[in-house]
Amino acid sequence: MRITRPAPRHHPETIIALIDVVFFLLVFFMLIGRMDATAPFDVTPPVAQTGADMPAGGLTLSVGADGALALDGLELNAEQAVAQVQRLIEEQPETLIRINAHRDATLRGVLPLIAQFEALGARDVVLVVTPPGPVR
User: Fold this and answer.
1) pLDDT band at 30 (very low <50, low <70, confident <90, very high)
2) DSSP class of residue 122?
3) What Å distances lie between residue 25 and 14, 18, 22, 31, 34, CA to CA?
4) What is d(CA 71, CA 37) in angstroms, rounded to the nearest whole number?
5) How far is it, in rounded angstroms, from Cα 69 to Cα 13?
6) Taking residues 37-64, what's their average pLDDT?
């Protein structure tokens, strides 16, 4: 008795190759797509002016790496510094406030000061920055 094997049937292409292509497309579009929230209106970020001369006059508030404050060279605590700035803003509303923070100072030590100065009526608050280059 002769047993014959049925001829092998050619299966149509599997869907696995298509799944791979869809997966790679998904990863591709996730990598090139924007993942941040966009504002419903136009937002143009400010441009840093490195290399420009600092405006003359005004106050200089220095913030140390440990959060210590000095207003025009006189070391003060936060309440004293804010009181001094308030007094000077009341006398001269156009007073420029320059904030010179150490590069290791935390942002949470600088931003509340800016908010307090703006609440007091300060019109110009300038952050002193160092242009990029070799660190000394």
Assistant:
1) confident
2) -
3) 19, 11, 5, 10, 15
4) 39
5) 72
6) 72
Q: How far apart are CA 132 and CA 136, in angstroms?
A: 11
Two tokens at 72? 């025009």
DSSP string, 49-84: -TTSPPPSSSEEEEE-TTS-EEETTEEE-HHHHHHH
Q: Is there a contact between 128 and 54 (Cβ–Cβ < 8 Å)?
A: yes
* 3 state SS of 90: helix
Q: Do 91 and 58 meet the contact criterion of CB atoms below 8 Å apart?
A: no
pLDDT tens by residue, 114-131 = 888 888 888 888 888 666
Rounded distance between C-alpha atoms, residue 67 and residue 78, angstroms: 9
